[in-house]
Write a structure and sequence with these properties.
By secondary structure, the chain is mainly α. Helices cover 68% and strands 0% of the residues. It contains 13 helices and no strands.
Amino acid sequence: KLIALLDSIPASTALVLIIDKGLEEDHWLIRWVRKNNQRSWAQLFSLPKGPAMTHWILDQANQLGGSFENQAAQLLASYVDEDPRLAKSEIIKLLTYVDYLRPVTEIDVRELVADVRQGDVFEMVDAIGFGDGKKAMFMLRRLLEEGKPLTLYGMVVRQFRLLIQVRELLDEDPAQDHFKIAKKMGVHPYPIKKIIPQAKLFTLPQLKTIFHQLSEIDQAIKTGQLEDELALDLLVASLTQ
């Protein structure tokens, strides 16, 4: 039915379809676009991450009339993860701080960019790793008071995604330091130095199980089966019981 609708759209009408995930080359919609390339096109807009986010920050600063030292851009990228809107806001704040007269340095980023909530997430995950349910739940309640549950959920997902990557690399070579691991991951070494001891609290199968639970919670929230705060409560309770 959708193909019939697409085929019937007149030249005077523009239809925009926004899909929140990438489509494989053999997907029926991509095949239709290729077949009708005179009147349709598809464009992938992927979020910058890792080294791409660092380059994006450097480019944005340049477009705004300022500049960042490379290490400063890497550190900011590690703070904002894959959130260009947050990154843009922090770039403007940092450029304003230096009055556009000098490059933003790593010290500027450490002093001005608030990473307090991510630090609290780190502490909560630490408590989960040690099986300290009381502290983990306390940290969760404090984080929920500071912001929206879905934002917090995204930060928790980010933390466990990093833990899985670090744990995999540690399993390959336990002697690697944080500089080597960060280089392989394409991120700033500062957060990796903090994450390595935490990754050692979990086995790789444990981390993958937790990440699977996070995916199930995400689906339950999106389909209305669970309220976001309750979902986070149940997650922390199940991981520390």
